Amino acid sequence: MTFIPKPKIRHPDLPLNELGLTRRDYEGSLSTLCAGCGHDSITAAITEACWGISIRPENLAKLSGIGCSSKTTAYFVNGGHGFNSVHGRMPSIAAGANAANRDLYYIGISGDGDSLSIGLGQFCHAIRRNLNMLYIIENNGVYGLTKGQFSASADLGTKAKKGEVNQQPPIDPVLLAMNLGAGFVARSFSGDKQQLVPLIQAGLNYPGFALIDVLSPCVTFNDHEGSTKSYAYTREHYEPIVEADFVPLRQEIRTDYAAGESMAVMLHDGNQVVLRKLAEDYDPTDSHRAYDYVQQHITRGEYLTGLLHCRSTAETEFHALSRTPSQPLNQIPYSQLHPGSAGLARLLARYR
Amino acid sequence: MASTDTSHPDYFHKVVDCQWACPAHTDVPEYIRLIAQGRFTDAYLVNRRSNVFPGILGRVCDRPCEPACRRGRVEEKPVAICRLKRVAADHKESYRDRLPAVPAIKNGKKIACIGAGCASLTVANDLMPLGYEVTIFEQFAVAGGLMRTNIPSFRLPGSVLDEEIGTIVDMGVDLRLGYRIDSMRRLLDEGGFDAIFVGSGAPKGKELNLPGRADASANVHIGIAWLESIAFDHVQSIGTNVLIIGVGNTAMDCCRSSLRLGAKSVKVMARKPRQFFKASEWELEDAEAESVEIVVNRSPKSFVLEDGRLRGMLFDVVEYDFDATGRITAERIVAEEFFPADDVILAIGQENAFPWIERDLGIEFDRWDVPTVDAVTFQSTRSGVFFGGDAAFGPKNIIWSVEHGHQAAISIHLHCQGGDLSARMSPGVNLQSRKMGMHEWSYANDYNVAERRLVPHVSLKERFKNIDIEVELGFTAEQAAAEVQRCLNCDVQTIFETKLCIECDACIDICPVDCLTMTADGEDADLRARLKAPAKNVTQALYVSDPLKFTGRVMVKDEDVCVHCGLCAERCPTAAWDMQKSWVQWPHAIDQRSGGAV
Q1: Are A218 and A148 in contact (CB under 8 A)?
Q2: Which one of A8, A34, A231 has the shortest CB-CB distance to B502?
Q3: In Å, how far is A131's CA from the nearest CA of chain B?
Q4: Average pLDDT along chain A, 352 residues, taken 10 residues at a time
Q5: What topology does CATH give the domain A23-331?
């Protein structure tokens, strides 16, 4: 971390987005994470992504649980709404908030401990419900906040800082999400903003549950030789397989996507995600084949990255299935929201 | 592109914009830090090493450092560098025992300096500690040259001049006051000097030959000569209505002096619009604060006399057309206008003049009658005769003259020791880490949002009572304490150690001014377009690393708006970034002595 706040001055020629804001206007408070933490890079990527697609800060809800990762919601988009929940319970809070106000962008920040250990059940059910949110797992393979014990995502054979070897198999959030039917499943690396920023933009606009598992090295407890989630190991073993670009409605698709190797996935409001395969035999729209492909590479010790699986799931999105009103609850007149005592009596009578 | 060669001393020197802009390479951030610590004498000596006259320059320097100051690129106003220099001079304690000692046994070489101005005094300052016997010939009864005669005492009090000139003269300089050199030939033949330095300035004011000039001569004055007459008490009054022709810094001194000699209405007449004025912005402001009116687009046409007495001047009213870059493309006279005047002061420029140098001595003059002087060695076409200050290349300013003096002193030393004048020491740069602990640096690295302080002035009511009342009072202690914190410490350099970098992006994410980018290598123009924030100032170099070990990308830093907050180094988990103070070593004659490194 740093001990002096980032000065408020900025580069005089910083570009402005459609709202007339600079990237600096999307920053948050001073990070108290270790210097060099991957999470801070993800924070910077989120800042850049929100600025890039001109999200109004007040239209963003930031949710998190407990852990190093979960602290980071304080470090971006100060103007957004925030809720720091009980350990592993962020998906429940997200479900409640999303049910009440469907108009906001929801971004949940979690870690491998928060999502794959204590909050695994919550994580799975958020996917099943197809909650309209972007769920980012800042995955470093250790419990950093309690000094570096193996987490549930630690790879077999990886070494802890003091040399002990992990003997339990990992839970892979990407495979799990595909298995549970998620329509937007991505993996990325904190050190690759070129890949990560468009993924975040696409995920925020995806109508349904979008997962990005971001490998985010723990510079203090998991950046040594023998670790499979260090900066060095990740740089050597990560392999981009699908490049994704978020293309907002107003913008034309750039011509440098050669036909055949790229495919567009339409999102419900005219925005689209353009995928560009980097391997010929890979089909990111077919969840079964994608699952097999990713698993094979994991067995070989390789991290495939990019938007690994993407198909439209708008019809099973939480609000679509629940047939909720199209407006957020705070825009519906109180008289409509509240049945009144007579109405309540009628309702109860149906159960007598 | 090739990784940046930071071993070249110019690289880090250039990052310290103020020091790079200063002709004498004053280590500005260093002395500002010393002022912040209350070490005024140390701050004064840092100044003195480079610019010799901190008390004088802290009042009247042309301050090329301030337009260059980086603070002016990230917010509106630069640091008040010049007035902080005065703070050091005003509060210093005795320092003479800390200057280089002057040997009692001389080296047998005699040097003559002509004119006791800033250039000659600098030559004496540099050569006395080396054992030279320096004689300065001055036509007037006081030393100081144009600093004394042309800068009014309400801007530069005589006591300040006396003290700083005294320090040099007291080194044992043979100062011959009231001694005018009339013949270079005689000086060369009979003087017995091993080298001669001509620092006689540019004492000839330009004339304006218009109808009526000759008849009106009693009330038309040449600016610099008139200022000189005031300095020597030969002139004590002026008419009620005064017109100043010209709008340079001399014009500003003339109009403000007029007000103090009894003028009620003073107008400065400019031929062109304000953006073409030669006067410094702050001198214009000071004059206008004293109700001097500056009239633009008036070109002088004739002097108007009535009954043999000056009544005023006739001007052409000029209109200009400009192109997109602001250059004048056409001008036309649209009217004629009369301005009444009792006195007119001409301040349209000055020249160097050498009627006393015979033209057959091997000292060449060009077709404008300007001596041919080497821009590096300051030697004329005759070996052993050197020029410096305004005498060398025409009117500049004090700080340039000082640097000319430094360079000429090196040449004179080499000349007298039988060395090659081009065998000058190269500048060098030393770097020293400012890291004290995990997040501790031995400089104040947090960005201070304070705005530029304004120097308090004597009230408008009081200041005209006497021409000797210094208008500027200098910063108060509180103001100085606030102003020093505005310095961005540009001399505390960001140093990148490529092999330590793990490419975690931490530095890039924390940089408040988006200076840093990790990207694929490319040529300069290509790289500039791909940075996190555009690098439009091509005069500031990009700092490009070797290829990084994991991805082969390069770390690129755009030095242009870096505020040296050190957050990149604080955030770096592997200390690949470090903050290191750069000491630019700009050699003077005394360094040349040993022949080794500075």
Answers
A1: yes
A2: A231
A3: 31
A4: 82 93 94 94 96 96 96 96 96 96 97 96 97 97 94 94 93 96 94 92 94 95 93 88 75 48 69 75 86 90 88 92 93 88 92 91
A5: Rossmann fold (3.40.50)
